[in-house]
Design a protein that fits this description.
By secondary structure, the protein is an alpha+beta fold. 23% of the residues lie in helices and 36% in strands. It is built from 2 helices and 3 strands. The radius of gyration is 13 Å and the shape is globular.
Length: 61
């Protein structure tokens, strides 16, 4: 992503998926908001995680 010129990144995690939330927090992601995905089959509440500077992620090995 960084090579493509992106400086930040965000993703959504289904609210209640505690394992995924802990994983993204361990990678430095910070919760930045919530949204409801209407989805094609069911609605889901989601938490948005952001990394304002993806250099931190690029440095992880």
């Amino acid at each position: 992503m960084q090579k493509l010129g992106y400086r930040s990144i965000a993703l959504g995690v289904v609210d209640g998926n505690d394992s995924a939330m802990r994983f993204y927090q361990a990678l430095g992601g910070a919760p930045a908001g919530n949204y409801t995905d209407p989805g094609p089959l069911w609605r889901s509440s989601n938490v948005i995680y952001v990394w304002p500077d993806i250099r931190h992620l690029a440095a992880l090995k």
